[in-house]
Amino acid sequence: MSTPQTTDPEVIPVPAVDPDSFGPPCAYARLRAEQPVVKAQLPNGETGWLISRYEDARAAFADPRLIRPLLSAWPPREDADAPPPCLPTFLEMTGEHHERVRRTVLPMFGRRRLEFMAPRIRAIAEELIDTMVASAEGGVADLVASYVEPLPLRVLCGTVGLPYEDRERYLPHTLTLLGAAGLSMDEILTALYALQDYAAEVIARKEQEGEGDDYVHQLLAESRRPGSAITRDDVVSFIVTMLMAGYKTNMQHTGNALFALLTHPEQLRRLRDEPEGIGTAVEELLRYVPLMNAINILVAKEDFTLHGQHIRAGDAVVPVPASANRDPQAFADADRLDLTRTPNAHIAFGHGPHACTGGHLTRLQLATVIQVLLERLPGIELAVPAESVPWDESTPLRAPARLPVRW
Q1: DSSP states of 220-283 as a string?
Q2: Which family does it belong to (predicted)?
Q3: 1 assigned to some structural domain
């Protein structure tokens, strides 16, 4: 992938999350102290430079010398029969293309534009809580299956305009791509092509329906406007991006955030008694609970040196927000959950021009999930010891497979 160096650097495995934990891996504490830039063997067999400190990771996300490669074209293939890459997702767009699309899409996910979703998310949450309570056996229910799992997908479908009833078609491909760092290119391309085809089908349906208030309808209308900054292909990319980033990661983060609260009952009680602190609490949960333990792959456009390590053009660079957000140089008592922490300049959503577009929707969703839960079930607690909670470890971001609770 890169030109050999005179002295080959040590290559380590990407640190693994401790069993029965959402992370981040404890090994990052040593890396931050001793090897803040270190070459690691990535799950797909390639190597990349892990960036574990807050200041370095934040800078890397905004560094113009580092670009996001196409998921469908990295690592690059040199064989003549390599398939053509897929359309870039929003995370992979670069330059003028990225700027014009971002200018159109970003305002749609601003706090004020998302106000229309607040009552819808609350209604979904209340409905799911009612169903969970009604079907509880012996006063115990699984918070994951009843609440955590269905809510993010319904919110995503309601915001973007995706058919919830099609979930069996698109979810398997989105779940495949969550493990893309450990997949073959053929597997990645198969999933991406399938999502692109599905997105094109959704667009065709929307065009037949005529006007609508969801985001796909709005973007299609914008793409037809003379001189528009976006094209029909950009709307396809928007749908694929939202399917990849908007469901499973949010679902797992929500489950982990609720697990964190349930295992810190004194902080949960404080939040119940002082609900006006929900905004600050959400920011701390975004810092403390990883949205992703890894892998954020960037590629160097030119040679440069960082902490004595010579990074060459073409090398992969991997800033790790989960590690950066636990850096004691950036956050006092960084490994402690403190729902009153302020200021809180975490980088859970990345930083710079490719910071997550859906960050405010994630905040709104998590705040509503917690508020409704504490309003409707103020005495909620784990129904089993925390150490006996089973974990879903099928993706880089691990989460409870079940959360038995009582109230």
Answers
A1: HHHHTSTT-S--HHHHHHHHHHHHHHSSHHHHHHHHHHHHHHHT-HHHHHHHHH-GGGHHHHHH
A2: Belongs to the cytochrome P450 family.
A3: no
In a domain, 5, yes or no: no
3-state secondary structure of 358: coil
Q: How many helices (H) and strands (E) does the chain have?
A: 15, 13
- Structural domains in the chain (count): 1
**Structural domain range at position 258:** 11-406
User: In this structure, what CATH number is given to the domain that contains residue 204?
Assistant: 1.10.630.10
Asked whether residue 267 is domain-assigned, the answer is yes
pLDDT digit string, tens, across residues 207-266: 998 888 899 999 999 999 999 999 999 999 999 999 988 888 899 999 999 999 999 999
CA distance 128 to 368: 13
CA angle 390, 142, 119 (to 5 degrees): 125
Q: Does the residue 3 lie in any domain?
A: no
